[in-house]
Design brief:
- The chain is about 30% helix and about 30% strand.
- It is α+β, with helices and mostly antiparallel strands and about 675 residues long.
- A hairpin with a 2-residue loop joins strand 17 and strand 18.
């Protein structure tokens, strides 16, 4: 094989809303290019990019697969980016590795929520986009209708370079707008529209055109490539990948128009200043995915930013500070990996058996210290409390979950400080179902699952003054004695806790006073009403008494705990519940249903916004009311709705709900 250089490499991400056919399109591209001997099919579980057991079982993409193949003297690295909203983290890191996106839009279902989300992510990174209209061989498919929707959503910059040949009543091939005008109904008008759209992006061509000069196709393609690179135009091509219609034209279009790996300037930080990757001489790379593999143990997928790397070469992970060694470097075609001796800037590679590696890590040689902007991953939406079924599994589960958390940046694990539950959090119920399946399949760990407890808190609504408690204990020898007097008062929401020492004249020795503080905080952590932590209170130590023999630290710790409990019950205590800010994105047709449902959940609508055909509803909602919201939103919007949440504040629960929670706690 010819030695690669940056001008030969084309890195392309295939993006869609799940079910729009990107995996089938990639299979068609591999077969038509000659990279595979036959085209794989999802129902037959033999596609190149969907090889994980979860993907085979559910017959959909969950992970960002890398597929490399040659075509017309170029080297294509294609990323099959999963189209489910659950897997948005895979897209966020995968898009760092490419210079172009092929956005797949279903000819039947058209633009969906995740199509918009993927388009927005690519736009934020200024990635050129080509649109493939897919599944044009499906019943009820309409190229014209979908093209109009695309233009309505993304503007007239979306230009079709081909149209489907429907002369026999169904799609049998493609017709080129630039070459086959005679065969296209209204072909001359369509040709002129496309030519004028291209010319409008180039002042020199526009001047020549207005002077009556005929513009050569070579000049048009050069201007189109420049406009694609700078976001001025988005070429559109129809496809029916199952029949391999449009695939050859698509491959030729990608070879002709997509930018080389060094055509787009990438900026990184060096010595706290932004610099171009092109100015960095040493080796640097960005890790866009990591995965646990049952055979190779761990695989890290990286985009080389600058320099080159050889097999057995050393590098530093700038996050961990560790020096690592690449025992092997792999070229990747789905699950198939082949050894290569070295790789250059722009290429996508896999490195095995590096155990402390995360998606988003930056790798460099010892002389090249750079960093990149941190990716802000969305907050997980759904949580479960899990408990290993056996003691043996208790010892294994922490390491297993930690490894899975490293590989999936939208999966979080923590032990709840209040309830002591082991909590796993993900983007949806299906996301967590896959985690539990992987625990069982790969790590042989079985767990019991339950809804996590809502992290309520306790507080007070009025003050108590000069509350006294005396702790006495006599057990044969030296006893225990401590008397304390406190004030307890509420503080502003979110202030937490404050201890004020107002002891005068040494009625309690200086050495015993911190024990009163610690005793009060210990009781706060235990809770009083229902075992939830206490917050937003101020304890003022006013007075007390010591005994020359029996007073000791433990006595004042106990007195502090008990006097706090006594005072707390005098202060009209209440339960606090967590309230989150929630942003729901939905098709406009469902905005009324969404707002009504939020109100029914004790939510407050803060604002609404319209973006294209989507509506955005911003609100504040008690966390307890949206524990299963993901599934309910999906039902309300036929799978088109999505949402994000973030913790905002605590507020007092309604009395009727407090009684219900307290009754459940007592039971």
């Amino acid at each position: 094989m010819t030695k690669l250089n940056g001008s030969m490499i084309r890195n392309i991400a295939l993006l869609d809303h799940e079910g729009a056919g990107e995996t089938t399109l990639l299979e068609s591209m591999l077969h038509v290019s000659g990279a595979t001997g036959r085209m794989g099919h999802i129902p037959e579980h033999n596609t190149v990019s969907d090889f994980d057991p979860d993907e085979i079982e559910f017959e959909k993409s969950f992970y960002c697969s890398t597929v490399s193949f040659p075509y017309k003297g170029l080297h294509f690295n294609c990323l099959d980016v999963p189209g489910s909203p659950d897997t948005i983290g895979e897209a966020m890191t995968g898009l760092h590795a490419v210079e172009c996106a092929l956005v797949c839009i279903d000819a039947v279902d058209a633009i969906k929520v995740n199509t918009r989300r993927m388009w927005r992510l690519a736009s934020q990174r200024h990635i050129p986009r080509i649109i493939a209209i897919t599944r044009l061989d499906a019943d009820n498919a309409s190229f014209a209708a979908v093209l109009e929707m695309i233009k309505a959503e993304y503007g007239n910059r979306c230009i079709p370079l081909y149209v489907p040949d429907l002369s026999s009543g169904k799609i049998t091939g493609l017709l080129s707008v630039l070459h086959d005008t005679d065969a296209i109904d209204g072909g001359d008008a369509i040709y002129n529209q496309i030519v004028e759209a291209i010319i409008e992006t180039d002042d020199t061509l526009m001047e020549r055109y207005l002077e009556g000069e005929s513009i050569a196709e070579l000049d048009l393609l050069k201007a189109l490539k420049h406009a694609l690179l700078h976001g001025g135009l988005f070429p559109v091509i129809p496809t029916a990948a199952q029949q391999e219609i449009g695939t050859q034209e698509l491959l030729d279009l990608l070879a002709e128009l997509t930018p080389a790996c060094d055509d787009i300037e990438r900026m990184v930080y060096q010595n706290e200043e932004l610099v171009s990757v092109a100015d960095i001489k040493g080796f640097s790379a960005y890790v866009y995915r990591t995965a646990s593999d049952e055979f190779v143990s761990r695989i890290s997928y990286a985009r080389i930013l600058s320099g080159s790397i050889s097999a057995h070469g050393a590098f530093i992970n700038r996050r961990s500070g560790k020096s690592e060694k690449a025992g092997h470097i792999y070229r990747v075609i789905g699950k198939k990996m082949s050894d290569i001796k070295s790789a250059v800037a722009g290429d996508l590679i896999a490195i095995p058996r590096i155990f402390d590696m995360h998606a988003g890590d930056v790798l460099t040689d010892s002389d090249t210290e750079i960093s990149m902007d941190t990716t802000n991953f969305p907050m997980p939406m759904v949580s479960l409390a899990i408990k290993p079924k056996t003691h043996r599994d208790e010892q294994k589960i922490g390491e297993a979950l930690h490894e899975m958390e490293n590989d999936d940046r939208t999966f979080h694990v923590h032990t709840d400080a209040q309830t002591k539950d082991l909590i796993i959090s993900g983007m949806s119920g299906l996301h967590l179902k896959r985690v539990l399946k992987k625990l069982e399949r790969r790590y042989k760990i079985n767990v019991e699952v339950s809804e996590p407890q809502v992290p309520y808190m306790e507080t007070i609504t009025r003050s108590a003054h000069k509350v006294e408690y005396t702790h006495k204990k006599q057990s044969g020898g030296a006893g225990q004695f401590g008397r304390v007097v406190i004030n307890l008062e509420p503080m502003e929401r979110g202030k937490g806790y404050e201890f004020v020492d107002q002891i005068r004249a040494g009625v309690i020795d200086q050495g015993f006073r911190p024990a009163v503080d610690k005793g009060a905080q210990a009781q706060m952590q235990e809770g009083i009403l229902a075992g939830f932590p206490v917050t937003d209170v101020r304890v003022t130590l006013l007075d007390g008494k010591t005994h020359s023999v029996d007073s000791k630290e433990i006595a004042f710790h106990t007195a502090g705990s008990q006097v706090f409990k006594k005072a707390f019950l005098e202060c009209k205590p209440v339960l606090l519940e967590p309230v989150v800010k929630m942003e729901v994105t939905t098709p406009q047709d469902h905005i009324g249903d969404i707002m009504g449902d939020i109100n029914a959940r004790r939510g407050r609508i803060l604002a609404t916004d319209i973006k294209g055909s989507a509506a955005i509803v911003m609100s504040e909602v008690p966390l307890a009311e949206i524990q299963s919201y993901q599934a309910q939103l999906k039902a309300m919007t036929s799978g088109e709705g999505s949402y994000t949440i973030e913790f905002d504040h605590y507020e007092i629960m309604p009395p009727a709900l407090q009684k219900k929670v307290l009754a459940e706690k007592r039971r």
